């Protein structure tokens, strides 16, 4: 028995029927804002910590890849799994499952948050030493790390709540909460770092505490929204009976995505260690310059999050061709944005680097990185947005393989550059080649039919209708059997 489309929520119907590019851009606009604002959180801290000296900046550069690993795992990998599961449940009209996914997502957030806390409190010193940290830079790294990861659960809670809301197609609420939080953080961070009046300055620890306050307040705001009647999902504990199939629906995407995220951050961490052979100034320069790459992650995530919702909803409704069209539209937009930023950074590196310090060694290393890698950022943007689209499709094998290929090229290439007597610039060239490999591997696989096999494009609306009807019937029967 077919159900009239009037029983579909308007947000879900837009994902299934509205023009693809216009819908993606409309949904991405607030989401790009939220992600850039969230990236600004790290930049704000870096700016103020840079005032404490090169050792503090180098210490923060050591910790930053691990903080971003947690951010990208909670918001991108597991957050993508949460959003994808919610979108596919809503697309297949499994409203009860969508509600139950709230409780499952929060349990996952609690578990992973505690795991990060234990791992970094116990193993932080060994990790940062292996990454090239020593002396005052290592002590600064440990101070910042201990504070940040003591509150890891708050980061996971915030990003999981935001992912639940984005999975319903609502990008505005997480955007508003994040932007307001950043406005709140701008005065709080220097206040806690440097002190004011009777309030003593806490140094680099103050930046970490300000960050945790931001995530705490943001989590409370997102919880308040979920408890309101405006939300498609709610905090109805009675509907949270934990079931392995729903955990699996999130984890089969989130865990595979986490492998991809770990590979990305390992590539950054390995390059940080390789830069450590050239001193603390090189670590600070690379860490500062590579923050621009990390800024691209939330920028592309701003486009990728609605792409997860659109692809997941279309696949839940059996609309494979529309899912693929949305994917390639997202890839084209991501390439244009990231390539423009990369070329600008390569042509004018010093204005970006001077925001965070003026140490000559830092500026020289950062300039070498941006000139070698910046012109290839477009490939990074393509690979990353296709990773998000693959989350929506529930097909993450090739994004993981692409990231592992990037890690291999970056690590082995950088090591060989040093072994053969190369300079820091040659280490960075290997990172640029790795980005090209990353983007080309994933795009080639999806174009070759990695998701569903070759999908031909119907030449007429009647052909499209004929193709979608069997898929829709199949999705309907599978949802009924579940």
Automatic annotation (TrEMBL):
Its main location: membrane. InterPro entries: MATE_fam, MdtK-like, Membrane_Transporter-Flippase. The chain crosses the membrane at residues 20-44, 56-89, 101-124, 144-165, 177-196, 202-226, 250-275, 295-316, 328-348, 368-389, 396-416, 428-452. It is found in: Cell inner membrane. Keywords: Cell membrane, Membrane, Transmembrane, Transmembrane helix, Transport. It is a multi-pass membrane protein. It holds the Pfam family MatE. This is MATE family efflux protein. It comes from Variovorax ginsengisoli.
């Amino acid at each position: 028995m077919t159900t009239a489309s009037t029983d579909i929520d308007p947000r879900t119907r837009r994902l299934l029927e509205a023009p693809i590019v216009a819908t993606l851009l409309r949904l991405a606009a607030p989401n790009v804002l939220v992600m850039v604002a969230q990236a600004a959180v790290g930049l704000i801290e870096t700016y103020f910590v840079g005032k404490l000296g090169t050792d503090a900046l180098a210490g923060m550069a050591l910790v930053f890849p691990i903080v971003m690993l947690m951010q990208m795992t909670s918001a991108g990998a597991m957050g993508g799994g949460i959003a994808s599961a919610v979108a596919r449940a809503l697309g297949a009209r499994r409203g009860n499952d969508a509600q139950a996914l709230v409780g499952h997502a929060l349990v996952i957030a609690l578990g992973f948050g505690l795991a990060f806390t234990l791992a970094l409190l116990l193993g932080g010193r060994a990790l940062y030493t292996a990454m090239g940290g020593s002396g005052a830079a290592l002590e600064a790294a440990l101070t910042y790390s201990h504070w940040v990861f003591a509150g890891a659960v708050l980061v996971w809670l915030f990003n999981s709540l935001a992912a639940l809301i984005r999975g319903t197609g609502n990008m505005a609420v997480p955007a508003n909460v994040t932007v307001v939080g950043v406005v709140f953080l701008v005065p709080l961070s220097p206040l806690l770092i440097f002190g004011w009046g009777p309030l003593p300055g806490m140094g680099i620890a103050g930046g970490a505490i300000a960050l945790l306050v931001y995530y705490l307040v943001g989590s409370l705001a997102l919880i308040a929204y979920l408890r309101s009647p405006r939300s498609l999902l709610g905090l109805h504990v009675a509907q949270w009976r934990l079931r392995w199939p729903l955990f699996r629906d999130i984890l089969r995407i989130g865990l595979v995505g986490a492998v991809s995220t770990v590979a990305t951050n390992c590539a950054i961490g390995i390059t940080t260690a390789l830069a450590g052979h050239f001193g603390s100034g090189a670590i600070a320069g690379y860490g500062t310059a590579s923050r621009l790459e990390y800024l691209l992650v939330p920028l592309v995530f701003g486009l990728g999050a609605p792409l997860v919702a659109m692809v997941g909803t279309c696949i839940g409704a059996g609309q494979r061709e529309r899912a693929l069209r949305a994917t390639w539209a997202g890839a084209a937009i991501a390439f244009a944005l990231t390539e423009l930023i990369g070329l600008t950074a390569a042509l004018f590196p010093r204005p970006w680097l001077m925001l965070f310090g003026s140490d000559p060694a830092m500026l020289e290393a950062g300039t070498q990185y941006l000139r070698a890698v910046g012109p290839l950022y477009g490939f990074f943007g393509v690979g990353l947005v296709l990773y998000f689209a693959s989350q929506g499709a529930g097909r993450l094998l090739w994004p993981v393989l692409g990231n592992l290929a990037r890690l291999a090229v970056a690590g082995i290439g950088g090591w060989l550059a040093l072994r053969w007597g190369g300079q820091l610039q040659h280490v960075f060239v290997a990172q640029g080649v790795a980005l090209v490999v990353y983007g080309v591997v994933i795009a080639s696989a999806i174009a070759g039919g990695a998701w569903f096999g070759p999908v031909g494009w119907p030449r007429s609306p009647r052909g499209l209708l004929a193709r979608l009807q069997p898929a829709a019937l199949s999705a309907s029967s599978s949802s009924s059997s579940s």
